[in-house]
Amino acid sequence: MRPRGTDQERRDRSWISALLGYGEFLIDTVVAFALIVGGTILLGVVTYDFVRDLGQVPFVTNVLELLSGLLLVFIFTELISTIRVVIARRRVDVEPFLIVGMVAAVRRLIVISAEAENLLGTTGFRDVMLEIGVLAGTVLLLGATVLMLRVTHGGDDEPTNGPTG
């Protein structure tokens, strides 16, 4: 019987670990490029729709649609930034996902706030108000979590290469 952890076993585990690391890097890179392409196309579509609808629909509705689309583009950029940090640091941080959740909740708040005006006096209005309350609570809870993370882990951020790091 061989003792556990022989040199050969360690080499085998090291080789498998390296292979998995390359696979992870490849998948992260492909996902990041897909998000870059998708975010760029989405930005173009959102801008085109805004300009096309000027004068066609009420201005406030057009601006709310623009804001909703731009927040979705921002979610794409946050996800790209998160992947960049994962690749650079070789670890997953929770905070960027919390921020994406906050932006998604705010985006939904904007959309349903615009819809709430049309539902005034109907039975659906109560449901929309409940959803607004839940989303507002979600944003506050996620924001408090981000704040707690920054207070408890303040100062241990490692620099990353790139325009935002």
Quick overview of this protein structure:
The chain is 80% helix and 0% strand. The protein is mainly α.
Unreliable segments (pLDDT under 50, ≥5 consecutive)?
none
Tell me the major beta sheet.
none
Helix content: over 70%
Q: How far is the first residue's CA from the last residue's CA?
A: 51 Å
Shape: elongated
Number of helices: 4
| SSE string, helices as H and strands as E | HHHH
Strand content: under 5%
- What is the tally of beta strands? 0
Work out the radius of gyration.
Answer: 22 Å
Mean pLDDT: 84
In total, the number of domains comes to 2
Structural class, from secondary structure content?
mainly alpha
Describe this structure in words.
The protein is mainly α. Helices cover 80% and strands 0% of the residues. It is built from four helices and no strands. Helix 2 runs antiparallel to helix 3. The longest helix has 47 residues. The N and C termini lie far apart (51 Å). The relative contact order is 0.08.
Topology:
Blueprint: H1 7-53, H2 59-89, H3 95-119, H4 124-152
Helix pairs in contact: 1-2, 2-3, 3-4
Question: Which terms summarize this structure?
Answer:
2 domains; 4 helices; 165 residues; mainly alpha
